[in-house]
Each structure stands twice: as structure tokens, then as C-alpha cells.
Design brief:
There is one protein chain. The protein has ten helices and ten strands. Helix content is 51%, strand content 14%. Helix 4 packs antiparallel against helix 5 and helix 8 runs antiparallel to helix 10. It has 386 residues and is an alpha+beta fold. The radius of gyration is 21 Å and the shape is globular. The strands form three sheets. A four-stranded mixed beta sheet has the order 1-4-5-8. A four-stranded antiparallel beta sheet has the order 2-3-7-6, covered by helices on one side. Strands 9-10 form a two-stranded antiparallel ribbon. The chain starts with 7 loop residues before the first helix and ends in a 6-residue tail after the last helix. It folds into three domains: 114 residues, Butyryl-Coa Dehydrogenase, subunit A, domain 1 (Orthogonal Bundle), CATH 1.10.540.10; 107 residues, Butyryl-CoA Dehydrogenase, subunit A, domain 2; 150 residues, Butyryl-CoA Dehydrogenase, subunit A, domain 3, CATH 1.20.140. Bound molecules: acetoacetyl-coenzyme A. Acetoacetyl-coenzyme A (CAA) binds next to helix 6 and helix 10. The site of acetoacetyl-coenzyme A has 23 residues, from helix 6 and helix 10.
């Protein structure tokens, strides 16, 4: 482990998340993966511990522990169960973005209910079938009515789509081209006209439901507009900057879980008359794992620290997500290799980790999108810090 010294609060949050993960998530993680479903009960217990509002002001029901605490907590949770963790990270992202852009009334009404678990979790409805990496091309429309807005369209790839009690829904509110014509809305999960799709059958993260959402003339009052009209794209991008710290933390946690399992196994498993840990072939795989793990955790904490300082962190969050998701996949793969044939079976959690981590280089912006964000930032800062 690198020489990062957490503050008392950060250590307390990390320890709390670890205890919750060991006590609540660990005994349920294998069954959740095999049987699917949605970890509603685990999420309610997470809410009781403040894990749905880690970086949210106390005034709105959060614990106000900062972005570094958030990253450390997510790492601990994902070590055990990525599926439950992703529902928490998206919900935290939704709560934080309402705090950042919402009115006082929206914060009091919605953020408190997200933090307390009354909404179960929050959902982030940006993507559409034809607008994934390029959300500026979305077709969902919101038109003005005498009472507010009417939203019609179809969303896709919505995390927690089956259970989220509140969605931020992005829609086009003017004919302005691309990103300029978008606005964000707060839509309760029980709004008439909102239809939740069936969960997608996925490679991993089986306990996290991913669905389509249909919106048929969903009525939203004036108080449902989040931020200014036309500000939706910027809101989405700023939310995703923070979200990417969450996914980098999640990927780091999954990778650390797989590595620690492989490390224990290598010390116990005997071949050719000695524990396999005594062979250089195994030592090198575990050394590469340990090196990359330290690097991804440090990059993630750096992005989170910048966020806590109120400094720009877009590029650092993208770098952390890119590195943690891609190298994290390699770590899970090497860990599986250390276990040999056992690693390929469902009896051991490493094959789950390999399946679970794969999506981290896809959701909240693919690796290719992160490289676009990073390269644009490098070009912008050319001549200064590169
Ligand atoms: N912060 C603030 N503003 C930003 C910003 C940021 N990080 N990034 C862009 N903007 C602003 C720009 O300054 C620009 O503003 P002006 O028009 O006033 O100049 C405006 O937004 C448009 O920016 P770009 O020209 O850079 O936009 P673009 O169309 O070229 O797209 C992109 C940029 C980075 C590729 C962006 O489209 C992107 O991030 N795509 C990926 C989307 C994504 O991550 N989707 C994930 C879905 S959500 C999900 O997965 C959640 C889940 O449930 C797990």
C-alpha cells in the first residue's frame, strides 16, 4: 500500500464500509450473482449507515465526508459485491448533482429521500439506443405545458431501472443543435406514463438491474426542472466527472478483492512439493497486480482529493477510470490464472470479479471516451502543465 494517510473521518468511513461489506454484502454476493434480483434490503441497510449520501451535506441527510471518503468507501464495498456497489455509486451521483444544481426545495425534498433510502436508490437516465457515447444526439423531448413539462422518449442502459424511486431524465427542450438544447428533469419512479423495461441479461453485475425506460407524456411540474433550461448537457458532464471517480473506485475494489483471493490461494496451494507462491511465475503475476493496484488507487484518490479541494478534476477522473478499469481487468485475469482450473469455476469468486469488472470500461463513458476527454484536456493545457 502506498503512503496515503487518511484523515480520521476518511478512516472511519472506510472502516464502516468494510464492516458493512463483510457483514451484509459478503454472505449474499454469490447468491446474488447466481440468482440475480435486486439487493433492496442491502441498500436499505446501506442508507442507514450513510452510504447513500457520503459526499452530501448533513443538512440534506448526508454524512458530508468528502470525495476521498467516498472513494475509499466504494473501494471497500466493491471488494465484496460490485453489483450492489454500482447501485450505490449511481445513487450518490444523483444526490450530489441535485445538491449542486437543485433549488433548496429540490434538495430538501429529493436528496433527503435519496440519502434515507426512501427512494431505494436514484437513477441516471441519460443514454438512449442511438445516443450512448454521444448523448447530445438524444431524441427524448420535453415540451412546455401550462403546468410545467411533458416528457416523451425512450431511455436505455439505466442502472437500477427496476427499483429507482427517482430518476434524473435528460430531454431536448429546444431546437438548439446538439448539446445546447438539453435540459435535466427530476422524475419520480411512480410518475404516470413512466414504464420500466425488463432487466437486460448481462455478462456480470447480475444483482444490478439495467433496464430501458419508456416515457409517455410524463408530466413534470415547473419544480421538476433541474438547473436552468438548456443547461442539461453541462449538468450531465459534471455529474459524470464525479461518477467516474466512483467507477474508478469500484474497479479498484473489484480488482483488489480478486488479487487478495489469489494471494491467499498462492500461499496455500501446493504443487511440485511447495506452495505455488514460491515460484517466480506466480510471484511476478502477483507483483504486477500489487503494482497496478497501488497506481490505480493513488490515481483515484488524487482525483477525489482534487474534487475535495474544489479544483478541476475532469481529466484526473477520466485517467483514473481508464486506468483502473483496464488494468483492473488484467488484475482479475491474472488472479484467475493463479487459481488455474479452480479460478474458472463458479465455486471461487474470481471468475465473478472478471465478469463484473468488464463493464467498468464501458459504463459512465467507455475507455475510448475517457481518452477523448484526456486528450482534449492535454491539448488545452499544452504549453502549461501537460
Ligand atoms: N464539465 C463542464 N462542462 C463540460 C464538460 C465537463 N466535464 N464537458 C463538456 N462540457 C461542456 C463544454 O464546455 C461545452 O460547453 P459550450 O457549448 O458552452 O462550449 C459543452 O459541454 C459541449 O461539450 P463538448 O463539445 O466537449 O461535447 P461533445 O459532444 O464533443 O462530447 C464527450 C464530449 C466527452 C464525448 C461527452 O459526450 C461524453 O462524456 N460522452 C460519454 C457519455 C457517457 O459517459 N455516458 C454514460 C452514460 S451514464 C451511465 O453509464 C450511468 C449508469 O447508469 C452507470
Amino acid at each position: 500500500m502506498f503512503e496515503f494517510q487518511p484523515s480520521e473521518t476518511q478512516e472511519m468511513m472506510r472502516e464502516g464500509a468494510r464492516q458493512y461489506a463483510d457483514r451484509i454484502l459478503a454472505p449474499r454476493a454469490t447468491a446474488l450473482d447466481h440468482e440475480g434480483g435486486f439487493p433492496e434490503d442491502s441498500l436499505r441497510q446501506a442508507a442507514d449507515l450513510g452510504l447513500l449520501g457520503i459526499n452530501v451535506p448533513e443538512a440534506y441527510g448526508g454524512v458530508e465526508a468528502g470525495a476521498v471518503s467516498y472513494a475509499l468507501s466504494v473501494m471497500e464495498l466493491a471488494r465484496t459485491c460490485a453489483a450492489t456497489t454500482v447501485a450505490m455509486t449511481v445513487s450518490n451521483m444523483v444526490a450530489e448533482v441535485i445538491c449542486a444544481f437543485g433549488t433548496e426545495a429540490q434538495r430538501e425534498s429529493h436528496v433527503t429521500r435519496l440519502c434515507s433510502g426512501e427512494y431505494v436508490v436514484g437513477g441516471f437516465a441519460l443514454s438512449e439506443a442511438g445516443a450512448g457515447s454521444d448523448p447530445s444526439r438524444m431524441l427524448t423531448k420535453a415540451t412546455r405545458t401550462d403546468k410545467g413539462w411533458s416528457i416523451t422518449g425512450n431511455k436505455l442502459w439505466i442502472t437500477s431501472g427496476t427499483h429507482a424511486g427517482l430518476f434524473i431524465v435528460w430531454a431536448r427542450t429546444s431546437d438548439a443543435p446538439g448539446a445546447r438544447g438539453l435540459s435535466a428533469f427530476l422524475v419520480p419512479g411512480d410518475a404516470p406514463g413512466l414504464v420500466r423495461g425488463k432487466p437486460e441479461e448481462k455478462m456480470g453485475q447480475h444483482g444490478s438491474t439495467t433496464t430501458a425506460l419508456e416515457l409517455h407524456e410524463v408530466e413534470v411540474g415547473e419544480d421538476g426542472l433541474l438547473g436552468e433550461e438548456g443547461e442539461g448537457f453541462r449538468i450531465a458532464m459534471m455529474a459524470l466527472d464525479g461518477g467516474r471517480i466512483g467507477i474508478a473506485s469500484l474497479a479498484s475494489g473489484v480488482a483488489r478483492g480478486a488479487h487478495e483471493f489469489a494471494l491467499d490461494y498462492a500461499q496455500e496451494r501446493t504443487q511440485f512439493g511447495a506452495p505455488i507462491m514460491t515460484y517466480q511465475a506466480i510471484q511476478w503475476m502477483l507483483a504486477d497486480n500489487a503494482t497496478e493496484l497501488d497506481a490505480m488507487e493513488l490515481m483515484t484518490l488524487n482525483a477525489a482529493w482534487l474534487k475535495d479541494q474544489g479544483k478541476p478534476f475532469t481529466r484526473e477522473a477520466s485517467m483514473a477510470k481508464l486506468f483502473a478499469s483496464e488494468r483492473g481487468f488484467d488484475i482479475c485475469d491474472r488472479s484467475l490464472q493463479v487459481l488455474g482450473g479452480y479460478g474458472y469455476t463458479r465455486e471461487y469468486p474470481v471468475e465473478r470479479a472478471l465478469r463484473d469488472i468488464r463493464v467498468t470500461s464501458i459504463y459512465e463513458g467507455t475507455s475510448q471516451i475517457q481518452r477523448i476527454v484526456i486528450s482534449r484536456d492535454i491539448a488545452r493545457r499544452f504549453g502549461g502543465r501537460s
